[in-house]
């Protein structure tokens, strides 16, 4: 369907990738993986026709339609949610107009026996049948189904898009893209702004309704559930695996071990050959053999080993001071903005050392309760913060709160106190800010780098109660794994607000579900909760 042939992209002197060839088939679900900066987003832009490669071609039939969701997009603010979603059906409206024109022409003409009139009838019939096959004017139900699947309520449909946050407006763009039903869907981090329920709805949609899908995502559970093929960009080349991500990880490890063995054997062969040449270089009786070995050496093609990013985060939270037995107790807590009640009658107790998750749809009050705990906003009811509780708070917008004009080093130097200041360089190195990277200005850092810097700031504070609001946004899979391990080892209390199932799995032992103005307690891990929800929703049918 889509053929990529000998693709090469150069930025400066070193190619980002070269000699890249593969085919995207009709029902392929491809995860595009590789370390940050490998060229995943660039590949999507080339497939979308938004960027030209240095050389090589992307060939596809004319009738093939491509839909592309970038990480960042320019959004308009002039319509309601429903009007914006209807934009996906522009072609339907154009077809309707065309049919109306043909119908009018048939009504106006009187040359019923002429060849032209019969041709007109055929054209009208063909267009009308095509229109009905495409769903005709039944698009309204499809729009509603898609918007509600992505978390919108019916009350939102007639609200202007300008009232929504950037994350919700991204959802509108995603809805438009899905409604167009392109033959090839290109998605760059589609789950960044979705809650767990919307992610599950999108998974199901992509599995059942979509054509070919190529996606870049750091949500392991999502790509495992959606994809059946993994293409890795590494060392400027691609490796194509006809398996889902988890199987790819196993096969990749095996491939790397084989590469290492082949590399070691080759190095030994080169060394032996060079030793022979050196030993017998000046012996006349061995001249022919020496020449033969020199030619042999020249013909050897060096084996490249895939890059292994060993500069992983090595996170370690400082030892936590002992707090009271119950760091947080809520009794009949209520929060309302005027007539709109966010939640009411919240009664919950978090024990010392517990690791709990706050989950639920966006806008149901997870971050609001966190702000109540932090005493940032007024509320009704009683909320007790226990004895000797020192809270460390990582907000969603933490990365945006950094001073853009400071360097990475100065940002940390400013918050560091006492002996730790002597170790700032080491800490920055552990967070992949070694060498020159520590002298970068904050304003030139990517979203992921800013999140890591904000995390270092949190690490330098001796706390015993961690509140992490979407800590994995912009982190790649390896960084997420290391952060998860660090939180698991932390001896204090932790509240995680997250939509990332893989991250929460094995980390939390209790889930608080926010929805419909109430907070429900669920014992067990995240998958226990999701299983229960599935059963509950089935019982409600």
Written description of the protein model:
There is one protein chain. The chain has helices spanning 40-47, 81-86, 90-108, 115-133, 139-149, 166-179, 196-208, 220-226, 245-280, 287-299, 366-373, 408-415, 424-430, 447-459, 477-489, 501-504, 526-540, and strands at 2-10, 15-24, 29-33, 55-59, 66-69, 184-188, 212-216, 229-234, 237-241, 328-337, 340-350, 355-360, 380-385, 391-394, 465-469, 493-497, 510-515, 518-523. The chain has 541 residues and is α/β, with parallel strands linked by helices. Among the domains are: 257-299; 328-390 and 462-540, Rossmann fold. It has a 6-stranded mixed beta sheet, sandwiched between helices. Helix 5 packs across helix 6 (166-179) and helix 9 (245-280) runs antiparallel to helix 10. The relative contact order is 0.09.
Question: In summary, what is this structure?
Answer:
With about 550 residues, this protein is an alpha/beta fold. Among the domains are: about 255-300; about 330-390 and about 460-540, P-loop containing nucleotide triphosphate hydrolases (Rossmann fold), CATH 3.40.50.300. Helix content is about 40%, strand content about 20%.
SSE topology sketch:
Blueprint: E1 2-10, E2 15-24, E3 29-33, H1 40-47, E4 55-59, E5 66-69, H2 81-86, H3 90-108, H4 115-133, H5 139-149, H6 166-179, E6 184-188, H7 196-208, E7 212-216, H8 220-226, E8 229-234, E9 237-241, H9 245-280, H10 287-299, E10 328-337, E11 340-350, E12 355-360, H11 366-373, E13 380-385, E14 391-394, H12 408-415, H13 424-430, H14 447-459, E15 465-469, H15 477-489, E16 493-497, H16 501-504, E17 510-515, E18 518-523, H17 526-540
Parallel strand pairs: 3-7, 3-8, 5-6, 6-7, 12-16, 12-17, 14-15, 15-16
Antiparallel strand pairs: 1-2, 1-4, 8-9, 10-11, 10-13, 17-18
